[in-house]
Design goal:
globular; 18% helix; Glyco_hydro_b; Glyco_hydro_31_N_dom; nine-stranded antiparallel β-sheet; glycoprotein; 942 residues; alpha+beta; binds 1-deoxynojirimycin; Immunoglobulin-like; Glucosidase II subunit alpha
């Protein structure tokens, strides 16, 4: 228990450091269902309670309403399961299995919370486009094939269902790309009526009805209800996803002779104190999404379940595991990645995402759970946080020091100590006598404040939130119906039941300016401890047999609880203004769908080089599964980073989507100016680089919010055939235009090995030197900066003037940086809007496309629907009508140019061009006199 690491000091708890207590957290063997299914998968004998031989019932297969349905029979236990496979727009297939006639209903899954438009919002492919063909084989069983469309490359998509034993294969042009139960691991602990079970000394051990862990007993009143299923990725060598773990980007094997972990990856949102690295242990968030990428294709699965889940991974020689099928089809696949998913409760509910490209998978997943909310523009700037800024003077003095040292920043944060005794929505009035004045001062330079607000509520009759929530019955309940009580920062606490829509709405209302004293439109929120973290609970969380609204057990919704806290907060901020404004809320716990509500971070990391390196694996993994707005605490939360480590951390942190420095209460102050030179200069330059590139970042966020494409990307997303980069994080991409290579070892001068994919030109971002791939280069790196390269063929917009905050840059001119390439079209985009409101949803934005060909740069409006050429569009365009392009820089030009012809509205004029052939040929058009909102071209003339 965390309690060992926590002292209770009068009004609250204080952490003190000690390494992760592994024994506080369950291993597979401690979660009995995990062990049962794991054993089942590795034995031929059916263990107690689990059944083999799940077979499709004769003549039960039907295709009705774009849904293939069948009955799966477990003859040994006389149980019939209902299987449904529905065919969705975008080529997805949803496969659901549960008992046909259960003694009581299973929890139907988190679709209500996770799917962007709920269950009703899923769009099925029209029945007329789907056909079923059934073929009998000699053993009397049939195989059924449903043809339901084609993918983005025109290949046919079919689903095949075998009857004995039941299994499903998704095929692209007859090649299996995703398989369910081809290994026969499918198993259910069928629901049983407790009353009908004989007591003691019988076949069902009474232990199955309750389970102990350390001093805890989970009463499990519904008895065993777990299930497991294997999902295979034929042809796949690398799988990714299923955050959150402090593990590698390319997931490691957990089964088989050469396995890299002994335990399966676990998905169960937990507050793990001083989490260890390179382990499949569960952490704060869960996204049950796995992607597989090979040279041929990318595919994925979304396993929609919010209960405790374990995932085993192994690599296999396909010819041994799915032999008959492979022989029949002449399948070329030599390898496969096999996975085994095991959940404690809920229904089996798997969405198959057929790709075939990574970008297709991202949009297929986004069609289910939605995309990253377009953030407030300020929130992609730099955030300065620590536990805790002491008082109002401290906040204002830190704010001032940023100006003194010429470092831009956007947000300063207040941790739990700003409250009156950890009563959220209140202030410690002695330390913060005038929070409104404080926020107004920050506002003078366009800066914001974020306050922490956790889901535990101090149990105190004199605290209005506690009193009202108790009276209204809004707290999570014990299984005897009383309000659940546990310990967290304030001591005795209760937890709001966010699954109760009325309670969630009530919390949202608490953010109105008249209720939240001392709040202004400049205040934003941080949700912490929302796994939920309970210091004296099992595994530092809530008991699974606690009850939520409608009698739902906590075990069923554990992994979505944090997302619901995030949602209520986000909605509260949105609604506090008469004209709703975009919220900014950071959350520690998350689930599939959390991206709709704001940002997340990787939790309590440590100030060491290993954590610095690991942050990129975690950030990339999350980006692959839709959690784009994520970053790690810069500098490391626990411990004191050396100046070199802190400098390197900033230099990497500017390339992660969420960019915040944070530190534990016991650490030394580490604001950049406290480091002295040369570190201060390097950190300042790094932060300024982030600000220069904000137009690029904001455009990436917009594109992510439209299509689901990650903001930061493993190399293979952009170079899908470059196998040598499938498992690396020593370099990664920001958008499609930049490659970043973090320095994760001590030393002022470090050599980085960079792999440049073939047939592409790359440019050193700082020197402009060009490199032709394929090439592996040793790049010596001084403390000044970390290696960054631009990809030839990109056009990257920047704003070069240094200001105190992003807000103050909003009317600055742009520079367009063109990186030439003879291999591909040279293109870029730029998105801008007011950065705050929802006007962009009605067309109030500018989205430009730049193309450079035949030595001419063209600026045109990127495609927009007619409906968005609205009054908001016209008004916004007008408001930005004076914003210039102040410079065009073309890198990689072999020829020299002396002038440029600018064509705008049919009128031509000439301007000067300067070219230098030093390094790789750079031509600059200074002040071409064109506006960012307009169409024009700039032709370079020799
Ligand atoms: C735990 C969070 O992870 C950390 O960031 C925060 O500073 C402490 N709680 C105190 O609120």
């Amino acid at each position: 228990m965390l309690l060992r690491n926590v002292l209770f000091l009068g009004v609250g708890f204080v952490y003190f450091a000690s390494p992760v207590k592994n024994e506080d957290f369950k291993k597979c063997k401690d979660s009995k269902f995990c062990l049962l299914h794991r054993d089942y998968a590795s034995s031929t004998k059916s263990p107690n309670n689990l059944q083999t031989n799940y077979i499709i019932a004769k003549d039960s297969v039907n295709l009705i309403n774009s849904e293939l349905s069948a009955h799966i029979i477990n003859s040994a236990q006389n149980v019939t399961l209902d299987l449904k496979a529905s065919f969705l727009e975008g080529g997805l297939v949803r496969v659901r299995v549960q008992e046909l006639n259960p003694p009581f209903p299973r929890f139907q899954g988190p679709g209500k919370y996770s799917l962007k438009n709920g269950e009703e919002g899923l769009k099925k492919i029209p029945e007329t486009k789907i056909s079923l063909k059934s073929v009998s084989s000699q053993d009397g069983y049939k195989s059924h094939t449903v043809a339901y469309g084609s993918n983005s490359k025109g290949a046919s998509l079919t689903l095949s269902l075998s009857e004995n034993p039941w299994s499903i294969r998704l095929l692209e042009n007859d090649t299996p790309i995703l398989e369910l139960n081809t290994l026969g691991y499918f198993n259910f602990e069928h629901l049983q009526d407790k009353k009908s079970q004989p007591q003691e000394s019988n076949s069902t051990s009474p232990l199955d009805w309750s389970e102990n862990f350390k001093s805890w007993t989970d009463t499990r009143p519904k008895g065993p209800q777990s299930f497991g299923v294997d999902i295979s990725f034929p042809g796949s060598t690398n799988v990714y996803g299923i955050p959150e773990h402090a593990s590698s980007l390319s997931l490691k094997t957990t089964k088989g002779e050469n396995r890299m972990y002994d335990e399966p990856y676990r998905l169960y949102n937990l507050d793990v104190f001083e989490f260890a690295l390179d382990t499949p242990m569960a952490l704060y968030g869960s996204v049950p999404v796995m992607l597989s990428h090979s040279k041929d294709r990318t595919v994925g699965v979304f396993y929609m379940n919010s209960a405790e889940t374990w995932v085993d991974i192994s690599k296999a020689d396909v010819s041994k595991v799915a032999n008959i099928y492979n022989q029949i089809l002449g399948n070329q696949n030599k390898v496969a990645t096999n996975t085994h998913w095991i959940s404690e409760s809920g229904v089996m509910d798997v969405f198959l995402m057929p790709g075939p490209t990574a970008k297709d998978v991202f949009s297929q997943y986004a069609s289910l759970v939605g995309t990253t909310q377009l953030p407030r523009e300020f929130s992609i700037g730099y955030h300065q946080c620590r536990w805790n800024y002491l008082d109002q003077n401290d906040v204002l003095s830190v704010n001032n020091m940023f100006d003194v040292h010429g470092i831009p920043y956007d947000v300063i944060w207040l941790d739990i100590e700003h409250t009156d005794g950890k009563r959220y929505f209140t202030w410690d009035n002695a330390k913060f006598p005038d929070p409104i004045e404080m926020q107004n001062t920050l506002d003078h330079s366009g800066r914001k404040l974020v306050n922490v607000l956790d889901p535990h509520i101090k149990h105190d009759d004199n605290y209005y939130i506690s009193k009202q929530a108790t009276e209204k019955g809004y707290f999570v309940k014990r299984n005897d119906g009383s309000d659940y009580k546990g310990w967290c920062w304030p001591g005795d606490s209760n937890w709001i039941d966010y699954t109760n829509e009325e309670a969630s709405e009530w919390v949202s209302q608490q953010f109105s300016y008249d209720r939240y004293n001392g709040s202004t439109p400049n205040l934003f929120i941080w949700n912490d401890m929302n796994e939920p973290s309970v210091f004296n609970g099992p595994e530092i969380t809530m008991e699974k047999d606690n009850l939520h609204f409608g009698g739902v057990e906590h075990r069923d919704i554990h992994n979505v609880y944090g997302m619901l806290v995030h949602k209520a907060t986000s909605e509260g901020l949105r609604k506090r203004d008469k004209i709703p404004m975009r919220p900014f809320v950071l959350s520690r716990a998350f689930f599939s769908g959390s991206q709709r509500y704001g940002a997340v971070w990787t939790g309590d990391n440590a100030a060491d080089w290993e954590h610095l390196a690991s942050s990129t694996d975690m950030v990339l993994t999350n980006n692959l599964v839709g959690m784009h707005f994520i970053g790690a605490d810069i500098g490391g939360f626990f411990g004191n980073p050396s100046p070199t480590l802190l400098t390197r951390w900033y230099q990497l942190g500017i390339w992660h989507p969420f960019f915040r420095a944070h530190a534990h209460i016991d650490t030394k102050r580490r604001e950049p100016w406290l480091l002295g030179e040369p570190y201060l200069t390097h950190i300042r330059e790094a932060i300024k680089l982030r600000y220069k590139l904000l137009p690029y970042w904001y455009t990436l966020f917009y594109e992510a919010s439209k299509t689901g494409i990650p903001i930061v990307r493993p190399m293979w997303v952009e170079f899908p055939e470059n196998t040598s980069t499938f498992d690396i994080t020593s370099q990664f991409m920001v958008g499609s235009g930049l490659i970043v290579a973090p320095v994760t070892t001590e030393g002022d001068s470090v050599t980085q090995v960079i792999k440049f994919p073939k047939e592409q030109i790359f440019f050193d971002f700082f020197t402009g030197e060009s490199i032709l791939g394929p090439e592996t280069k040793d790049i010596p790196t001084l403390l000044r900066e970390i290696p960054v390269f631009a990809v030839g063929g990109s056009i990257i917009p920047t704003r070069e003037r240094s200001r105190r905050s992003s807000h103050l840059m909003r009317n600055d001119p742009y520079t367009l940086n063109i990186y030439a390439s003879s291999f591909k079209e040279i293109k870029g985009t730029l998105y801008l809007d007011d950065g705050n409101s929802y006007d962009y949803t009605n067309g109030g934005y500018i989205y430009r496309e730049f193309v450079f060909k035949n030595a001419t740069l063209y600026s045109k409006e990127a495609e927009r629907p007619e409906s968005e050429k609205s009054a908001e569009y016209i008004a916004f365009k007008k408001s930005k009508k004076n914003i210039r392009v102040e410079r065009v820089v073309v890198k990689g030009m072999r020829n020299s140019f002396t002038k440029a012809i600018i064509s705008e509205n049919g009128v031509n004029r000439e301007v000067e061009v300067t070219c230098t052939q030093k390094i790789s040929g750079v031509c600059t058009v200074r002040d071409p006199g064109v506006l960012i909102t307009e169409d024009w071209s700039i032709r370079l003339i020799q």
